[in-house]
Amino acid sequence: MASDPDVTQALLALSAGDRAALDNLLPAIYERLREQAHRALRRERPDHTLSPTALVHEAYLKLVRLERVAWQDRAHFFGACANEMRRILVDHARQRKADKRGAGAEHVALENALEAAHARPGELVALDEALERLKSLDERQVRVVECRFFAGMNVEETAEALAISPATVKRDWTLARAWLNRELSA
Asked: 144 near 169, Cβ under 8 Å?
């Protein structure tokens, strides 16, 4: 991967309206995004129709099409990618659930949600709905869950992506898991 300053410079140029910066950005971050997508899909069902490449391309295209995003640095961008990958996977699960099962989301514990989602996509939808409720209470905790759970980032990567300390990540991760477990088991 290109050096951090190169990625940050390309993102800053893109934020300033330089569309040519896209030519430098994708090659510099592609492998990191594929790793992130692979970690996200590792928890999905084995016959998932999205590949890591498709997930990267879909998330990347949505993010670079956004107008007026002031990318701060590469960590900000990768955090946004984690959020977008979550949205794509949840939308995919919703579509699969609508196609196969109709309405009626089932509730499960957070630790079992993604593992069970391969068999019951409604559980990923239930997790997303619980995250939306948590967002009204503490948006940062939701971002920590997106980075840790959906993008598979470790504590340090999450801290960097969200510009918070590793101790804050650990605290938010613990609180968010407890809150989500209570919500999903209700």
From this structure: yes
Q: Measure the CA–CA gap between 109 and 74, rounded to whole angstroms.
A: 32
| Alpha-carbon gap, residue 147 to 140, rounded angstroms | 11
DSSP letter at 105? -
Q: How far apart are CA 27 and CA 48, in angstroms?
A: 26
> What is the pTM for the complete model shown?
0.58
Q: How far apart are the first and last CA of the chain?
A: 44
The CA–CA distances, whole Å, from 50 to 91, 92, 177 equal 12, 9, 27
pLDDT in tens, 165-180: 999 999 999 999 999 9
* Contacts by residues 58-64 (CB-CB < 8 Å, ≥ 24 positions apart): 58/88, 59/33, 59/84, 59/85, 59/88, 60/26, 60/33, 62/88, 64/14, 64/22, 64/25
Q: Which two tokens stand for residue 177?
A: 């898991």
Specify the DSSP class assigned to residue 46: T
Indicate the number of domains in the chain: 1
3-state secondary structure of 165: coil
R_g (Cα) of the chain, nearest Å? 17
| DSSP single-letter state for residue 73 | S
Domain span at residue 60 reads 4-185
